[in-house]
């Protein structure tokens, strides 16, 4: 349902435009091309009804009915990750792909409970992911932050135990943020007040965010802000239904981490054109564009930028505003923000004669 052409010059501009990603699950970057080799390497037997080839699995990924359908496959895929090297290899593959898409900064999620319940040690998971983060900074020039997500479908005491295990990593700064993901509607934000309060009390410098307003209504977003004290909202699509909430998000410049292709794949909207992107721009609500679980949803960050352009046809200045909002909403130093902002300006000046 493309409404606008993405010309070669515009494609090149979007490709080169410096990007910050705030909403990508490292386990969600596990594509069929890596899943099957890891299963074989680690002697993991996949379920009998699981597709037998990478090609067949990719076809199934194109047919998710909703969030729950996707999560079933997501947790099976997670099960092939066993060693620190597995976690490193997965994240390093993501950083390399994202670098080619123009990524300058990444704040990446991981789900430790999905590994802990399989008997994988927290240090193995964090060790592998952190090695990839450090290598990405050293060799690719991508600054990174690791965000630990709690699985909201698991008991709160399990979440509290996970926070306890993560304390040394919060203290060292290896884990920089706390998030909340998995099934949204049955598990509202107020269930996790104690979890967020514990992290905020012991580690006040840790960034707080939560998935809200993907399937849940505006109240899930409001309660995440009020009860969990988050400074960012992941997804936040349904914020458009509440004008007072939009005004609040704009006033506080609370970043929404939008995932366009994910929203279509999981039936949140039928097409990217239905997303409230223009409404957010008009209301001065900041948002970034992200890939969520790119191996499952058919696109990394550049693919998401391009599909938004084909639906909204934004001019260069609007794209610069979107990219800069992503920088301002990142958990990085002012000096690093200036570096990326300057790089955005340079790309704009390069393409301005070609596209304006």
TrEMBL record:
Name the UniProt record assigns to this protein: Adenine deaminase
One example of a Gene Ontology biological process annotation: purine ribonucleoside monophosphate biosynthetic process
Binding site for substrate: 293
MF terms (GO), sorted A to Z: adenine deaminase activity; zinc ion binding
Catalytic reactions on record: adenine + H2O + H(+) = hypoxanthine + NH4(+)
One Pfam entry name: A_deaminase
Catalytic residues (UniProt): 214
UniProt xrefs under PROSITE patterns: A_DEAMINASE
Gene: AAH1
Entry GO CC: cytosol; nucleus
């Amino acid at each position: 349902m493309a409404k606008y052409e993405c010309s070669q010059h515009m494609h090149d501009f979007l490709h080169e435009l410096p990007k910050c990603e705030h909403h990508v699950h490292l386990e969600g970057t596990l594509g069929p091309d890596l899943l099957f080799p890891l299963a074989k390497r680690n002697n993991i037997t996949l379920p009998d009804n699981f597709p037998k080839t990478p090609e067949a699995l990719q076809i199934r990924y194109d047919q998710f009915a909703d969030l729950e359908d996707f999560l079933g496959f997501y947790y099976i895929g997670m099960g092939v990750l066993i060693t620190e090297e597995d976690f490193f290899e997965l994240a390093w593959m993501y950083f390399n792909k994202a670098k080619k898409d123009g990524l300058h900064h990444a704040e990446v999620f991981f789900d430790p409970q999905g590994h802990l319940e399989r008997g994988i040690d927290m240090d193995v998971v964090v060790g592998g992911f952190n090695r990839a983060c450090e290598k990405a900074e050293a060799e690719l020039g991508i600054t990174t932050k690791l965000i630990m997500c709690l699985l909201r479908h698991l008991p709160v005491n399990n979440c509290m135990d996970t926070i306890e295990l993560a304390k040394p990593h919060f203290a060292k700064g290896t884990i920089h943020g706390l998030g909340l993901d998995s099934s949204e509607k049955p598990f509202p934000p107020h269930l996790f007040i104690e979890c967020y309060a514990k992290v905020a009390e012991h580690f006040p410098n840790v960034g707080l965010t939560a998935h809200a307003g993907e399937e849940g209504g505006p109240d899930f977003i409001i309660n995440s802000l009020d009860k969990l004290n988050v400074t960012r909202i992941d997804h936040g699509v349904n914020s458009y239904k509440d004008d007072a909430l939009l005004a609040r998000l704009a006033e506080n410049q609370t970043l929404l981490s939008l995932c366009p292709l994910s929203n279509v794949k999981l039936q949140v909207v039928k097409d990217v054109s239905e997303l409230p992107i223009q409404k957010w721009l008009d209301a001065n609500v900041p948002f970034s564009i992200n890939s969520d679980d790119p191996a499952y949803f058919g696109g990394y960050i550049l693919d998401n930028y391009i599909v938004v352009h084909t639906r909204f046809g934004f001019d260069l200045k609007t794209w610069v505003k979107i990219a800069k909002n992503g920088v301002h909403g990142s958990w990085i130093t002012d000096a690093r923000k200036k570096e990326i902002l300057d790089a955005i300006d340079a790309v704009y000046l390069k393409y301005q004669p070609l596209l304006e």
